[in-house]
Amino acid sequence: MLEQKTGFFRGSVLCLWLLLLISPTTHAQSLLGGFASGTGGGDVGQLVEESRVRENARTSAVATATEQIREVMERYPWAERQQLQSLADESVSEYLRSVERTIDDLQGDGALTVDEVVEELGQQRLKWINRLTGVLEARVQGHEPPPQPEEFDQTYRYHLAMARYVFLERNDTEQWLWVLAKVGIGVLVGWVLAKVFQVLTWNLWNHYRTVSAKTISLSKGPLYVVGGLVALYLALEPLWFPEGTEEVIYRVFLVLLILVAFWWVWYLCWAAAEIMAPMAHRTGGSGLEAHFKAVTRRVLRVAMLVVFLLIIVNVLFQSNLTQVIAGLGVIGLALSFAMRHLLQNVVASFSLMADHPVRVGEMAIYQGTWGSIEDIGLRSTRFRTFDGHLIAIPNDEFINEAINNVSARPFVRRRFRLGLSLRNSADKVREAIRIIKDILEARKEQQHPDKPYHAMFVDYGEYDIQILIQYCYVPPDYWGAKEFDSEVNLEILQRFNEAGIDLAIPARANRLEEHPERLRVMVEEEDQPAPRTAAG
């Protein structure tokens, strides 16, 4: 039967420590007693007397059997002491016969030493104690003793026999039905909690407490699993399992609870990042807020992962956390040289968060390529080009490059020259400038108030009259600015056509227009077949 525990976290370290104390060496030393104290006492290679070993083995076995009977009588007061004593005497006799055989085998070389007794008889005595305990408890409860490994020639046969004994004989059908009933009750409790959490989440959403509502919603899964594990553990607690299995089951449940706690804390890292995000928003706006939440969430999750791994190592191997942390410090010093590039990228990610030259979602130009910042991670920044390609740039390289943050500009400036034909008169040029100013004036609300538009005759080109046009579009949206440019261009073209203002024609087209016979000659030449070469 599983040992009674008041909680899942009580006494795990102490139990394993006691198991380590009950080692074969400790039991073997009790066999030796004080017969080796004549010449040095502590030398395991010292010769010992056969009679002293036999006498100490007999005395120790009788005392151990008496103690086992007393413990069984305390757990099962209705047990008959005479029956237990008879079983114990039979087990002691069998054990002493096996000790005789072991001593005879050890004396094959003509000598009996302390280290031989410690190594051989220690394991033998430990197995006998476990077997005696199982026999006494089984007989008291009216069952056959559990199978022993020595009774089978192959290991898998022993495991099959033990599984049959546990599931079909030692734990009867009624006990397994109680297990199913308790698990069903746990599922029912989980369903009720689901309904309560659902109502609570709706109320929080209605009161615009988004973070709290989502935190409770994300916590439902881990809490359901915890409820199921608790119900299953309580259901298995009254059942009988082989010696040592109960501790394995306890450790498995403890590790599962730790993993569920890690799952829950993983979600809480999201909530913590959401709660701290407004500070970043007040400092640098929504772009910094998104970056801050992503980095904070990842840093917290990495820290939690390291902490939970240390806890699991401590639970499974019962190691000293102080020694583990000290060992990790030495290993970390060695890994810091091998992982210096990774560490540089991690440090650069914090620099990006503090300096925020770019933020998630912003448009930027990196090494002459236009794109948007899709994510800023601990190791790299993801840059999505306008062609759709995703480029992962190490943070250390990204922070050392000159980055043109297009989204950070307060407006989108357009400055270009419009060429008018040289055949236009001065009045036509003045009218063209007036038309351009009227078009820009009509759209003044879409331009920066501190950056007035300009339209003026600035220079003569080789084949045109050049009008300089400049305006600043707001807000600084790339595609919005392109739409604005398109509307301005179309209206200029329409108004110029209505006013009879000619735009400049490229020089080659202008000459062909003046000499149409040249165009005819060029077309005829293009229609002629290619000349044949000498080789052809």
Structural class, from secondary structure content? alpha+beta
First-residue to last-residue Cα separation: 102 Å
Q: Walk across the major sheet and give the strand order.
A: 4-3-2-1-5
The average pLDDT score comes to 75
Order of helices and strands: HHHHHHHHHHHEEEEHEEHEEHHH
Report low-confidence residues grouped into runs of 5 or more.
1-45, 518-536
Give the strand content: 5-15%
SSE order and pairing:
Elements: H1 12-21, H2 24-32, H3 50-75, H4 81-106, H5 114-140, H6 155-170, H7 173-206, H8 210-236, H9 245-317, H10 321-338, H11 340-355, E1 363-366, E2 369-376, E3 380-385, E4 390-394, H12 395-400, E5 403-405, E6 412-421, H13 426-442, E7 454-460, E8 464-473, H14 478-499, H15 507-514, H16 516-527
Antiparallel strand pairs: 1-2, 1-5, 2-3, 3-4, 6-8, 7-8
Question: What labels describe this entry?
Answer:
536 residues, 5-stranded antiparallel β-sheet, alpha+beta, 3-stranded antiparallel β-sheet, Alpha-Beta Plaits, disordered C terminus, disordered N terminus, SH3 type barrels, 65% helix
